[in-house]
Amino acid sequence: MSTVLAALNRGLHAAFEQDQRVYLIGEDLLDPYGGAFKVSQGLSTKYPDRVWTSPVSEAALAGVAAGMALRGLRPVVEIMFGDFSTLIADQLINSIAKFGAMYGGDVAVPLVVRTPMGGRRGYGPTHSQTLEKLYLGVPGLRVLAAHALSDPGELLRRAILEDDGPVFFVENKLLYLRPLAAELQDFEIEQHTPPGAYAATHTLRLKGAPSAALTLTAYGYMAELAREAQLRLAFEHEIFCELVVPGQLAPLLPGGELDGALAASLEKSRRLLAVEEGSYTLGWGAEVLARAAQAFPGGLKAASRLAAPDAPIPASRPLEEAALPGVEHILAAVQKMV
């Protein structure tokens, strides 16, 4: 059975095969290493002229990639750990995301930044963060989150070949070895693509279950934990939930609108729990809850969110596990809300 890592690797290979303008730039990419998490394996052997291993200077490689994109190439930048994306923030926020608007649409910057995010591997405070919330409000920048419910490699291929603007592509570390679409036989799955997006939102409900008492929403690896909690809530506590998993985190719909799939689920449940691995304050879940409140001015029966505390991620594995939201945290929060 294919894994998320294998799917992402296939997506990169497909993009390289289909378009000679695709280049990959990053640190430690050359075979046999193939990148810190092996997503880029095989590319430097097959396409030696289009895979550039760089010095340890994230800002420099992002700047070079921006110039390449402006000249008509379609570069992919691999940042070894998402924590280090802060080193390209100036390039990404003040240049790459703005060039199209600054020059009246006469230039395009088709550039994809790929990076692993998240903890639960004992890597400590500077290699375990979930920082994509820093980029969710940047105009001109699309933020996508890989998940295991569909083919993340196809999503990556489309971002590289079809998107003429910059994309920040988030890959949670613990997703890499997850099988694609595993253990979904108990679920009905609906896909909805928001306007202006190509990453679908997936809604999961248990087959034959009563109407949902609560809507869960989560992305990336947290969607896997939310799905496990969804099953346990049904079989252990007879609490039935729907799970809404977005593939695109930004831009959200204009005017404060709510994703159609999430709105449809909330029409039935009127209870919402947003779950994310990033720190609590000013997170993705806060924006989702704010939009839900706007979409339902009569009010929801209950609304809450789970996230990591506003503190550095501990290096100690037991402390890290206690700090990051997990299945037991989701179970407790849902039982409190219903």
**What is the overall pLDDT average?**
96
User: How far do the termini sit from each other?
Assistant: 37 Å
Helix content: 25-40%
Q: Which architecture of the largest domain per CATH?
A: 3-Layer(aba) Sandwich
* Contiguous uncertain segments of 5+ residues: none
Structural class: alpha/beta
Shape: globular
Radius of gyration: 20 Å
Report the CATH topology name of the largest domain: Rossmann fold
**Helix count from the secondary structure assignment:** 11
Count of individual beta strands: 13
Name the CATH homologous superfamily of the largest domain.
Answer: Thiamin diphosphate (ThDP)-binding fold, Pyr/PP domains
Q: Strand fraction band?
A: 15-25%
In total, how many domains does the architecture comprise? Answer: 2
Major beta-sheet overview: 7 strands, mixed
Lay out the secondary structure.
Elements: H1 4-18, E1 22-26, H2 43-46, E2 51-53, H3 58-70, E3 74-78, H4 89-96, H5 99-102, E4 112-117, E5 142-145, H6 152-162, E6 167-172, E7 187-192, E8 201-206, E9 214-218, H7 221-237, E10 241-245, E11 248-250, H8 260-269, E12 271-279, H9 284-295, E13 302-308, H10 317-323, H11 327-337
Parallel strand pairs: 1-2, 1-3, 3-4, 4-6, 5-6, 9-10, 9-12, 12-13
Antiparallel strand pairs: 5-11, 7-8, 8-10
Helix pairs in contact: 1-6, 3-4, 7-11
